[in-house]
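Re: that chain you flagged

S.,

Sorry for the slow reply, it's been a week of failed gels. I finally had a moment to sit down with the sequence you sent. For the record, here it is as I used it:
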Amino acid sequence: MDLSTICERYDERLSPGEYADVDASANGLQVGPGEASVDTVAFAVDAAGATIETAADRGADLLVVHHGLSWGGIDRVTGLSYDRIAPLIERDLALYAMHLPLDGHDELGNAAGVADVLGLEAREPFGEVGPVTIGQRGRASEPMSAAELASTLEANLDTGGEGVQYFDYGPESIEDVAIVTGGGADWLEEAIDAGVDAFVSGEGKQKVYHQARDAGVNVFLGGHYATETFGVRALQELAEEWDVETTYVDHPTGL
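Prediction finished late last night. Pasting the structure tokens below so you have them in one place:
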């Protein structure tokens, strides 16, 4: 399949233009020629030395990631930027990145994937960033305790053995859950204002402990990497539907 066709199909499904004013990521094709043939696509959460080299070693023509290399533009290709971009060019490996649009998509997004794991129903957008959202809110089909919710996350997240941290300061019976994956701790206040029983995110900040305790809400931190594997996995499934050979580069950070 042609590189431009794959990129156009992803762009059409994810609508990155809607996030252009609020997302620092240069969503879309970040490194690569205008036209190229793609036989194998690799998928990873992060564009980094380890994932780029692994994708190239597996013979991939395109690497699709959530966290790319261009954040607000690249002024100079030196140092770490050079070390990451050089092997992409030297080994004819194109790079496509999709950040916030892949967090908030109602079907393919990271929050949607976590909501699937928790079996949430009656879902609606959550986590406002200007005119768009990057998370989801829903109700559990059956009430859960904090320990049960944490256990479900641990069983389904690629945490790298780090487990799920949680603060059980909210209701003992959890039904209403809000999710913003990755570094979504700043949306805890929105979750509190919404009156949910629990808030699920990736990594926390010091203030999260006190906010959760003072507001009486359960908070679950599954890890930035672990909560953001779902989006690229969903994009991998799409590529397979297009009869493209795929490979997934799993590189958990434990964070």
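What I noticed first: The two ends are 35 Å apart (CA to CA).

Talk soon,
D.
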